[in-house]
Amino acid sequence: MTPDDPLEQELAALRPRPPSPALRRGVARRLAGRRRWWWAGAAAGAIAAGIVVVLLARRADRPPDVVPGPVPPVAVATPPPTVQAYNLALARSPAALDDLLDREAVRSARAGVAAPARAAFTPDLLTMRGPAE
Q: 115 and 125 in contact (C-beta within 8 Å)?
């Protein structure tokens, strides 16, 4: 681009128009509105920070919370063996099943657990078919 170029000369001669008074007022009004919101936001933040400081200061005046000590261990009863435990013991050997049954009998006797009375044939089972003929 050379200075002799007519387009360059025309563009150099162009000057921006000055802003109108309405544009100046609109820009001033918007900038003033933003300042108010900024101050309102800053004031709200300062109030919130003050509330947090007051709450923390009050918490510092309280005695510390009581922290419970360790809980002593509680004796937990060992559950009786499951059917699968009996099956596994039998799969190992009949002697292993006898040992498991003996241990369970001793444990039950020490705990004072009475085995529930069960009968193979209850009166209900016998009378389910009706009276005998």
A: no
